[in-house]
Every structure is written in structure tokens, then in C-alpha cells.
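Good morning,

Attaching, inline, the C-alpha cells for the sequence recovery test we're adding to the shared suite. The designed sequence is right after.
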């Protein structure tokens, strides 16, 4: 399949939000000096009464968004993921989740999107910390289609949501026109195979899809590729159905190997008696190298070549 690169998911987020705001004056955006990096300049120009600029004050950002949501508005709090889920974690926990304010927390430039800015600007902890907090849904769309559907569905949810976006241009749809079903909380099968399964999330799904094509063409290994866009709640039914064949499973994420998608899947499988060969691909518990997102992905094996080699090693063992 030719994965034609379209636009950044963040651009689709902004366009979708503008479309919703045209029909709904309850849509409010709160930003922490993130109007430009969040692709929200057009939104602010069109809806100046429905955007609140807090400045670089993430704790205030979340508290104010919670207040807006408590008044019955649909609040989208937009800030770099590395700061939103670290500096404002207490406010996310208490003001949003425990107080049941349905804020849509938008973590932008997530994972290693900031690349050369280094570890202080990487968000490799966000899945882990938020998974441990009750009353929040965690979503990381893999393509433009999933992004639009996520924003439309999240806008109607009456509970807190964290949505994670990178900066890279992504395909319109990794599954083509045939796979246009999407529901938060339900994983999407991008490609079906019989020998091994990739379960990935966010911008890590694309290299899995590319590796699957190489493996089938050059090595005769047929891979299923799943976009597990929702980290919490996890689609346990889909995962257990996939595991029933006993074939290897590899999880792939732009996150620490600790506490993210991989450990969530591993816990589910182990507690349900599965014995599938299993591998977590992510960023190790170590000082993260600096470089572009592409360079960092290649360094840690989150790439077409790296994932192909991981599969060949796992299947040989």
C-alpha cells in the first residue's frame, strides 16, 4: 500500500475544532502560549471569543479549563505534552479527573517530536502517569482520519480525555478507504496477517505498517497491524482475540517501555493466561539520545528497518 503523507495530525485537529466551533459556541480553547505550535492561529482569528490565552503557566491552564468545563462548556486545553502532563499533573488529577470535569487535554509535540531540544522536552512518561489516574481516557491517533474522529467524538464525551499529537506529517488513513470505522476505546486493524501481530499507537503505527510490507514481500512473514489508538480503556477483547492464535506479539510506542502500551498489553495477556512470544519496542529506561524524531526512531528501532530486524530475531528464537 502506498502511504501518501498528507498533513500533521495537529493541523487536522485545528481544522476539525474550527468545524465544530462553527456550529457550537460552547467550544472553548485554552492555550499556554501554544497558539502557534498548536496550529490554532486560524481558530483564534475566527473565534476570538472562544479562545483563552494563559501564557506559559500550565497549572493555571488546566485549572482554568476545568472551571470552564464545570460551567457546561466544552474546554480543550492545549499545551506541549511534556509540560502538560508533568507540571500540571496535580491539576489534571484533582481539578479534572477527580472532580469529573470533562476537559479535553491536548498534548502537542508529544513523544520525541521536539527532537534536538532533548530530554526536558520529550514526553515519554505521559501514558504511564495518566494510566494510574482514575477517570481519564487516553488517545493517540495514528493518522489524519483517526485524528478527526477522535476530536469529534471527544467533544461529545462527558468525562476527561487526554489526546496526544506529534508534529510529523502523517497519512490521511493508514487503512485506506476500506477501514473507515473508528470508535474511541476500540482498536483498528490496519492490516491482517497470520504469523505475527504489531500492536502500536500514535505515530509509531506507520513504521509498523511499512515493516509489515517488507516482511511479507521479502521474508514471507504475514503480519497483522493494529492501531491501538486508545491506551485507556484498552481494547482487551481485540487483544485477547488476536492472542488466541498463540503467535508472537510486538507492541510499539513512542514512549518509555515502562508504564505504557506495552506493559498494559503484557499485563492483560499474562493475567489471562496467554503465552504468546512477546516484545515491547519503545524507548529504554536510559538517557535519551538527541536528534530529529526520525533519527531517534531509527536509533531505538522504531523504524521500518528496526522493526523488521526485531521480527526476524523474535521469530528465529
Amino acid at each position: 500500500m502506498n502511504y501518501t503523507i498528507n498533513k500533521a495530525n495537529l493541523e487536522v485537529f485545528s481544522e476539525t475544532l474550527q468545524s465544530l466551533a462553527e456550529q457550537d459556541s460552547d467550544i472553548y480553547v485554552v492555550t499556554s502560549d501554544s497558539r502557534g505550535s498548536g496550529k490554532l492561529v486560524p481558530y483564534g482569528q475566527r473565534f476570538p471569543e472562544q479562545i483563552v490565552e494563559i501564557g506559559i503557566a500550565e497549572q493555571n491552564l488546566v485549572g482554568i479549563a476545568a472551571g470552564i468545563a464545570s460551567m457546561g462548556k466544552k474546554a480543550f486545553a492545549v499545551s506541549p505534552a511534556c509540560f502538560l502532563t508533568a507540571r500540571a499533573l496535580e491539576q489534571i488529577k484533582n481539578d479534572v479527573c477527580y472532580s469529573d470535569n470533562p476537559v479535553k487535554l491536548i498534548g502537542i509535540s508529544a513523544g520525541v517530536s521536539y527532537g534536538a531540544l532533548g530530554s526536558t522536552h520529550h514526553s515519554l512518561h505521559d501514558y504511564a502517569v495518566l494510566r494510574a489516574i482514575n477517570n481519564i481516557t487516553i488517545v493517540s491517533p495514528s493518522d489524519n482520519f483517526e485524528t478527526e474522529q477522535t476530536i469529534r467524538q471527544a467533544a461529545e464525551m462527558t468525562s476527561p480525555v487526554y489526546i496526544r499529537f506529534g508534529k510529523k506529517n502523517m497519512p490521511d488513513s493508514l487503512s485506506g478507504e476500506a477501514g473507515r470505522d473508528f470508535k474511541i476505546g476500540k482498536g483498528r486493524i490496519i492490516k491482517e496477517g497470520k504469523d505475527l501481530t504489531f500492536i502500536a499507537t500514535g505515530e509509531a503505527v506507520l513504521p509498523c505498517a511499512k515493516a509489515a510490507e517488507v516482511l511479507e514481500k521479502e521474508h514471507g512473514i504475514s503480519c497483522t497491524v493494529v492501531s491501538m489508538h486508545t491506551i485507556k480503556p484498552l481494547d482487551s477483547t481485540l487483544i485477547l482475540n488476536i492472542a488466541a492464535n498463540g503467535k508472537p506479539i510486538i507492541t510499539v510506542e513512542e514512549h518509555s517501555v515502562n508504564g505504557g502500551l506495552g506493559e498494559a498489553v503484557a499485563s492483560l495477556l499474562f493475567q489471562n493466561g496467554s503465552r504468546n512470544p512477546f516484545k515491547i519496542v519503545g524507548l529504554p529506561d536510559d538517557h535519551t539520545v538527541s536528534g530529529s524524531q526520525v533519527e531517534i526512531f531509527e536509533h531505538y528501532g522504531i523504524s521500518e528497518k528496526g522493526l523488521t530486524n526485531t521480527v526476524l530475531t523474535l521469530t528465529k528464537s
